[in-house]
């Protein structure tokens, strides 16, 4: 589960990088062109000059300066320059000249090749029929050689065309303008990123479904185990001895230990619960503790094992091995190990199903005892309870057999 989460995180981290890489790959570099127009006004006989950054160089066009007289096709029907051998109205002894053609009817490469075939030093394409009348595009015209080619808006082209139709000589100079870098998202990039995102979303959804199914299973197993342990604890509590403190009992003396749960002393008429380890507590204090923890508040003895009702390890068979890591719940295995501190040492030769009732913890953790030692320790422990409770303690613990293992009761 943890490896799947790391893999998913890496895949999600790659998506922005992939989008940036595609965006960087799909970009267009283009240059504007300054168009300087010079002509003599017939009405005033004065030289007029106009300069505007209205052109755009073609994609395969050399980015350099070009100048010459402007010329258009002789026939108005050939102004698209789509026919090889298109004749242009070039003034005599013009030297370098620039062809003015209209867009449409054929490719830009054909137009430029036909004009270059008539010795045009540059080609100016008028963008006719565009949605935005002032729009220009970067023309693609592979295979046209080193002819300078630019595109100008339709209004500017119509203005130049009107001057030529009035037999006015127009001198045009083309110079390099501003370099532009335009980023755009191509259709291929959009499809690729969309498919990648959908795949990542499917993987994420599948992983989340799997994770929550496993979490639900683990939670159910934990709750089922807690219910079983709680039922076993209630059964064990019902078998523990209950006694009422009377006036004059040893527990009412000031030097007797207080209840370890509520930290209060014992008073006459208090009802106490006596555990197999000989520790006693107020019944109302220790019963909820035993239901939740199933251990003695003082020595951590497991009452289920002590009474031979169940083994906590049996209740954990239903849980997966990675329960604690996957769910992050309470480490029940660790709880069982802590309960086993009061358990019987197998290496010492004692059966783990037997609880040594009445023996102190230090003797349970030490080497096996002889019969004399056990008798001595039993005699030393007798004063812990009052004389009136000794018989009841013997009865309460009488169901425990020190020589035979307790029956295994399935939880």
UniProtKB/TrEMBL annotation:
GO MF: zinc ion binding
Signal peptide (UniProt feature, chain positions): 1-23
Gene Ontology CC annotations of this record: membrane
Keyword hit for Iron: no
Record field: transmembrane: 190-213
Membrane topology: Single-pass membrane protein
UniProt keyword list: Membrane, Metal-binding, Signal, Transmembrane, Transmembrane helix, Zinc, Zinc-finger
Pfam family, one: zf-RING_2
Segments of this protein annotated with the region Disordered: 369-388
Listed name of the protein: RING finger protein 150-like
Origin species: Astyanax mexicanus
């Amino acid at each position: 589960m943890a490896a799947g989460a790391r893999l998913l995180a890496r895949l999600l981290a790659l998506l922005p990088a992939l989008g940036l890489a595609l965006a960087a790959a799909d970009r267009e570099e283009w240059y504007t062109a300054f168009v300087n127009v010079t002509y003599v006004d017939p009405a005033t006989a004065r030289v007029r000059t106009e300069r505007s950054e209205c052109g755009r160089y073609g994609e395969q066009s050399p980015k350099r300066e070009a100048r010459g007289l402007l010329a258009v096709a002789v026939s108005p029907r050939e102004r698209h320059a789509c026919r090889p051998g298109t004749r242009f109205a070039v003034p005599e002894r013009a030297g370098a000249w620039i062809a003015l053609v209209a867009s449409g009817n054929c490719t830009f490469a054909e137009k430029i090749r036909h004009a270059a075939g008539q010795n045009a030093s540059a080609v100016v394409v008028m963008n006719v029929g565009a949605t935005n009348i002032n729009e220009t595009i970067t023309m693609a015209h592979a295979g046209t050689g080193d002819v300078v080619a630019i595109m100008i808006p339709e209004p500017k082209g119509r203005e130049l065309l009107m001057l030529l139709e009035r037999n006015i000589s127009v001198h045009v100079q083309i110079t390099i303008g501003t370099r532009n870098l335009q980023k755009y998202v191509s259709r291929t990039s959009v499809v690729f990123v969309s498919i990648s995102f959908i795949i990542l979303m499917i993987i994420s959804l599948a992983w989340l479904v799997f994770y929550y199914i496993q979490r639900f299973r683990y939670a159910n197993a934990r709750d089922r185990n807690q219910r079983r342990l709680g039922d076993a604890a209630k059964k064990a509590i019902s078998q523990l001895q209950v006694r009422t403190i009377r006036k004059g009992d040893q527990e009412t003396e000031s030097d007797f230990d207080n209840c370890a749960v509520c930290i209060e002393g014992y008073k006459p008429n208090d009802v106490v619960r006596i555990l197999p380890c000989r520790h006693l507590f107020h019944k109302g204090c220790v019963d909820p503790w035993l239901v939740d923890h199933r251990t003695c508040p003082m020595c951590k003895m497991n009452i289920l094992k002590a009474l031979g009702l169940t083994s906590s390890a049996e209740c954990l068979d239903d849980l997966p091995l990675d329960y604690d890591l996957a769910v992050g719940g309470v480490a029940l295995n660790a709880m069982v190990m802590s309960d086993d501190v009061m358990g019987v040492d197998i290496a010492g030769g004692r059966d783990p199903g037997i609880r040594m009732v009445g023996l102190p913890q230090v003797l349970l953790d030490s080497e096996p005892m002889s019969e004399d030692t056990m008798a001595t320790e039993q005699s030393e422990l007798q004063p812990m309870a009052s004389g009136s409770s000794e018989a009841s303690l013997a009865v309460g613990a009488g169901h425990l057999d020190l020589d035979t293992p307790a029956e295994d009761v399935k939880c």
